[in-house]
Amino acid sequence: MQDIYLSFKDEKEANAILFNGVIPNYQNIDVIGVMYEPISSDFLIGDSKANPVPLPSPNYGVNIRLLDHEDSKPLKPYLVYPANPMRVWS
Asked: How far is CA 38 from CA 42, 47, 53, 57, in A?
């Protein structure tokens, strides 16, 4: 087994790689989808601080727990190596 993190430009691109129609190409798929990152907590409105507003990042995240017999070649162009993953397999 190998846990991998993937980043696609959108859901359509992810689905084209991860699914054959409605049949998944991989057994363990964890779709995160559009990821959001808060803007600085120092964001000001007038003279007062506002709560950080999450902004969408320009990617569509998916985690896969790849089994030994599954082909990782189609996933290689989408591999990312986040320093602090938003979600991991337990």
From this structure: 11, 20, 6, 10
